[in-house]
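Quick one:
INPUT:
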């Protein structure tokens, strides 16, 4: 259909890894010439504040959107959701190695009955982990496939649907060629003041939990457990991450006590905590490592230890198991670990 477009947003890697930069650049360059596709680059999705102009730009995209980032698909989806960038799940065929099914391994049979997202518009959001391939062609082929399966009439991207960005804030994302050029100059150290002005604003690295509402049952275990004021509830009494920057860098403690595995720390080194699919009963990932420590500690023990460490670093008293650990959760986690220990991986 004439005038149909799909918008592709590439969320760039942290740092200046030349291989990652090259892949981003190759994909963007190929897509710029592709009919029916608009392409833009934004900084790393997880690091952008809610009012960062890259996030405002993402919110301004009115139709179907493909978001590529250096995170697991689930982590991309729920980080977007947190920023009110929502839509129905678009199915992507390009998966990172940790998420591909393996016939030798058991199927994930767990059914999640989460409270779900709210105010989901009638469009599709496709999320692609850029670690899925080293080849730009693979991404371009998948985006062509998505573009062909959609017939999306986009409206002028400047027709703003939320917030009040300055036009120049959006312009930088509407001109990916200029952005690529500026990024190259910046990464090579030859950027001038003018070059830098073309770049998206800097983002500091962040660390905070992202909630997967397709799994979250609103049980409030996390708000009881966290003693650092990260969680809150919204007007509908739904759990939310309210003070994200209160979270303790590197610590994933509450993800270990969430009974639904609904808490994602996208930058954690263990795939299941970082949002890889199929983690619990799929047994594709080492569950002992997901929940507990290498030395055989249970998930709850690990979480308590991590929380106590952060309390002490804050000059507060350790609380051990006396706060925020429900007996039922404790028993369930211990049973799960015992069951897993009995399995042979
Ligand atoms: S502990 Fe998990 S399931 Fe319960 S409210 Fe928190 S995120 Fe949701
Ligand atoms: S990791 Fe620790 S500080 Fe961060 S939200 Fe969870 S319990 Fe709170």
């Amino acid at each position: 259909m004439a005038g149909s477009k799909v918008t592709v947003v590439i969320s760039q890697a942290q740092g200046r890894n030349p291989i990652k930069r090259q892949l981003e650049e190759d994909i963007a360059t190929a897509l710029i010439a592709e009919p029916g596709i608009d392409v833009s680059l934004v900084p790393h999705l997880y690091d952008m504040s809610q009012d960062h102009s890259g996030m405002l730009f993402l919110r301004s995209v009115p139709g179907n959107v493909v978001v590529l980032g250096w995170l697991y698909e689930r982590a991309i989806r729920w980080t977007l959701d947190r920023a009110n960038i929502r839509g129905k799940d678009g199915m992507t065929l390009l998966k990172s190695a940790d998420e591909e099914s393996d016939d030798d391994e058991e199927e994930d049979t767990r059914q999640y009955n989460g409270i779900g997202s709210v105010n989901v518009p009638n469009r599709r959001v496709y999320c692609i982990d850029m670690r899925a391939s080293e080849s730009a062609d693979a991404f371009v082929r998948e985006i062509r496939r998505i573009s062909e399966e959609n017939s999306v009439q986009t409206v002028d991207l400047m027709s703003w649907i939320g917030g009040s960005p300055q036009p120049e804030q959006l312009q930088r994302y509407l001109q990916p060629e200029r952005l690529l050029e500026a990024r190259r100059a910046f990464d090579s150290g030859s950027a001038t003041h003018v070059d830098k002005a073309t770049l998206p604003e800097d983002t500091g690295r962040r660390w905070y939990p992202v909630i997967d509402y397709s799994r979250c049952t609103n049980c409030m275990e996390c708000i009881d457990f966290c003693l650092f004021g990260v969680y809150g509830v919204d007007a509908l009494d739904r759990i939310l991450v309210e003070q994200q920057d209160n979270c303790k860098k590197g610590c994933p403690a509450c993800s270990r006590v969430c009974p639904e595995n609904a808490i994602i720390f996208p930058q954690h080194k263990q795939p299941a905590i970082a949002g890889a699919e199929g983690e619990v009963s799929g047994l594709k990932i080492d569950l002992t490592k997901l929940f507990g420590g290498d030395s055989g500690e249970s998930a709850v023990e690990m979480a308590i230890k991590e929380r106590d460490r952060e309390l002490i670093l804050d000059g507060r008293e350790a609380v051990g198991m006396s706060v925020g650990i429900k007996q039922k959760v404790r028993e369930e986690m211990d049973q799960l670990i015992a069951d897993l220990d009995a399995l042979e991986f």
